[in-house]
Design brief:
By secondary structure, this protein is an alpha/beta fold. The chain is 25% helix and 32% strand. It has a seven-stranded mixed β-sheet with strand order 9-8-7-10-11-12-13, covered by helices on one side. A seven-stranded mixed β-sheet has the order 18-17-16-19-20-22-21, with helices on both faces. It has a six-stranded mixed β-sheet with strand order 1-5-6-4-3-2. The mean pLDDT is 94.
Length: 448
């Protein structure tokens, strides 16, 4: 029988969702930071029935795929769960994760293609959200430990570029020099909760998330930003909620540029502090290009893009040959999507602010009898029964599903498989060094 604090010999036999899996004395044991085939001494830290979780103490037989992690905070910070893996093995891990979920959860025999690599393995993130903790005069910026809210101080993040190091240094110095009080989650007191920043094509948007009105003078910080960034915008976001949501609903522009301007896949866009935008530009473009390639829109009369964000993919897919509807629940994103459509002169496009659960059935009913094509890119929780039923009622020839969680993807594919065949599944490494993976699945209707 395994008990907490037991030290046992463990062989990593397979990959799970975020760790390795093996068997010890009849228990299924999950251990992070190992590679399939490695033998290690591990300490058990949790036991329930026939399942246990453990942490490695000593690797007795290391894998040839093991590398030295590029970050000194590996194993502490919750970001880079796979930084000990040679990159090719990271891609194997992610393909297996998607394949296992679809096979075990959806009970489907879909062929999962190899994971598409990221053009950049380090320095790929265009956005960081950094909690601000510590005490007045000793402010800490960093990231949370995995499955906790203990902060790991970081003056350098290997997943972002040099721009992030500069910004972290400048803001930490500003907070300590001006006596800014960081947020305390236990008491809900303190001035600054997070620093949120996005950097694309030499343009920086820096947002201070404040627990109420920000009372400090921001001019010294703005001057420092101007010394290091040619184009920057400084904002304050107000968030007094007692929860883990990073940003509140009110954002004030302080100085500098008001948005980032760019063009991806021929679509012009503008990003503001609250805009949703994929963090890895190179992989985002690969995914959006693949979605376009997977769709045969020659006979389509109605295209619906669900969970459409600021509308870049919508505008990539829209055409004067059919009506396009984009559904997004966040009002600020819909405002951005309207601007995106105006910037690009996109024809026959209607942006709808609302819940996909309510709006998709309305669109289907209003266009009864027409040939549909549907794209869904939901948040981590995936679709729900109402959306799946609406899709089955509309019976579009093709559904393309872009997923950030292969477990909820598998659940939804199982729901839709009553009328659809899963004809394409391909993972994409949107988040190198982490255990997260993006996946594209195409569903083709089964005609009797």
């Amino acid at each position: 029988m395994l008990r907490v604090n037991d030290v046992v010999l463990y062989t990593a036999e397979a990959y799970g969702n975020s760790e390795t899996v093996g068997v010890v004395d009849g228990y299924t044991v999950f251990v992070p930071h190992l590679i399939v085939g490695e033998v290690a001494r591990v300490r058990v830290n949790y036991v329930k029935k026939n399942v246990a979780y453990a942490a490695p103490i000593e690797i007795l037989h290391p894998s040839e795929s093991r590398i030295s992690p590029p970050c000194p905070n590996f194993g502490k910070c919750g970001g880079c769960a796979l930084a000990h893996l040679e990159y090719g093995e990271q891609l194997v891990f992610k393909r297996n994760k998607v394949s296992n979920n679809i096979c075990k959860l959806a009970k489907l025999n879909a062929d999962v293609l190899p994971c598409v690599p990221s053009p950049l393995r380090l320095g790929y993130r265009n956005k960081l959200s950094l909690p601000v903790r510590g005490r007045r005069g000793a402010v800490k910026l960093g990231l949370f430990e995995r499955n906790s809210h203990k902060i790991v101080t970081a003056d350098h993040c290997v997943l972002a570029g040099d721009w992030a190091d500069t910004l972290i240094s400048l803001f930490t110095e500003y907070c300590n020099r001006c006596g800014v009080e960081p947020y305390d989650e236990r008491t809900f007191r303190g001035g600054v909760r997070h620093l949120v920043a996005r950097y694309i094509d030499g343009q920086l948007l820096a947002t201070i998330v404040s627990n109420g009105e920000f009372k400090e003078d921001l001019r010294p910080f703005a001057r420092k930003l101007a010394e290091h960034f040619d184009r920057f915008g400084l904002f304050v976001n107000i968030n007094t909620a007692h929860n883990n949501v990073i940003m509140g609903k009110t954002t004030r522009h302080i100085c500098g540029i008001e948005y980032i301007e760019g063009e991806h896949l021929g679509v012009r866009y503008r990003l503001r502090p609250n805009s949703f935008f994929q963090v890895n530009d190179g992989v985002k473009n690969l995914i959006y290009g693949k979605v376009r390639d997977l769709l045969d829109l020659s006979d389509t009369e109605v295209l619906v893009d669900c969970f459409s964000g600021i509308g870049i993919l919508t505008n990539v897919l829209a055409s004067c040959r059919y009506d396009t509807y984009a559904i997004e629940i966040e009002p600020s994103a819909v405002t951005d999507a309207e601007e995106t459509a105006q910037l690009n002169g996109t024809p026959r496009l209607v942006n709808i602010c609302g819940d996909v659960t309510a709006e998709l059935p309305k669109i289907i009913a209003a266009n009864a009898g027409k040939r549909f094509t549907v794209v869904v890119d939901p948040p981590r929780k995936g679709l729900n029964d109402v959306i799946c039923d609406a899709l089955l009622d509309a019976a579009p020839d093709t559904i393309v599903y872009v997923s950030c969680d292969s477990a909820t993807l598998a659940r939804d594919l199982a729901r839709l498989a009553v009328d659809y065949d899963v004809t394409y599944v391909e993972p994409y490494d949107m988040f190198p060094q982490t255990d997260q993976v993006e996946t594209i699945a195409r569903l083709t209707i089964r005609r009797n």
